[in-house]
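Homework help board

Subject: predicted structure for assignment chain

Our instructor gave us this sequence and asked us to write out the predicted structure in token form, then describe one feature. I got the tokens but I'm not sure how to describe them. Can anyone check?
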Amino acid sequence: MSREERSSPDARAAAREAKRLVVKVGSAVLSKGERALHQATLERIARELIWLRKKGYQVVLVSSGAILAGMDRLGLTERPGSIPLKQAAAAVGQSLLMRRYEEIFAPYGQKLGQLLLTQDDFRSRHRYLNARNTLFTLLHLGVLPVINENDTVAVEEIRFGDNDHLSALVATLLGADLLVILTDLDGLYTADPRKDPDARLVHEVPRRSASLHFWADESGTGLGTGGMVTKVKAARAAAATGVPTIIANGLVEGNLERIVHGEAVGTIFQASASRMRSRKRWLAFATARRGRITVDAGAREALIRNGKSLLPSGVVSVDGGFEGGEVVSLCDIEGAEFARGVANYDAEQVEQIKGIRSDQIEDLLGVKPFDEVVHRDNLVILE
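My token output:
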């Protein structure tokens, strides 16, 4: 029997106070370890989501299962390895998955709305805002959004890789009060609980937890794309933008109700002390960085401590090709990323003006549309 590491008394306050929830359910839960969707499990999850809706919660469901449903229909016994075969299975399975959900939710009178997303929907600020507006409109209309990756068209460059990452992006996009990632384990452990009887359940991951040791399996179940490591990464990312996240067992009936009542279910990742504004969340997490700018120690200090803009004088080097208006990583001289922002100049121009004063920009470039390489209003510091 695994032991537990208890959380602090106030760790669950965020869950008790949450009103807008993103719930992610993976294939390991939806299949209950089998090679097809498990009807009784889908029905139970639906009942719990309906209970949340009736209690006044806004709920968004991020659901895997399209490829799994397609595998069952196509007679595949193993998860496809190639992207074309995955896309084919998803094309067959997505409609089957939604039909199953429609049938299950229909007796409750619950309307569903389907959104299939790729990374490009988050990289583009315009598409990001469109997706955000659509989701808020659906919630306003009392519709339960069901979100999945658009596996039928997603190629390597625009794939999320797993729905854990997608759920964190959705929670960030919505400014959710809580993200719940349901898996087939009780939460995060200090060791593999299936092999180590001394494994302890970790109930709380504090904001700064560099010294915390835990087990994170990368292999997954063979039915889904991620193991515990993808859930931890997603939970940390969401928490960094201000969304507390809980990893809990989706095979235990009533866990969602226990979570919103503040009971010590699963592992909670405490959110950042300060909640980011919408645009800052997009910069910090949803966008793809097109390049990297390395800055000196003085510039790093001015950006982090004093809320200053990045001036050319603080730039040490430039890596990657990017255009003005694209998001770049800001790194210290040791290569560690500490901020992200929208570059005012392209990579070649930044290379030309690095290390100089702002009043010298026009002499080198012939024009000076901006004094700053990255303005503080278009910059976010990463915790």
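Reply (TA_rk): Your tokens look well-formed. For the description, you could write something like this. Residues 62 and 78 are 23 Å apart (CA to CA). That's the kind of observation they're looking for.
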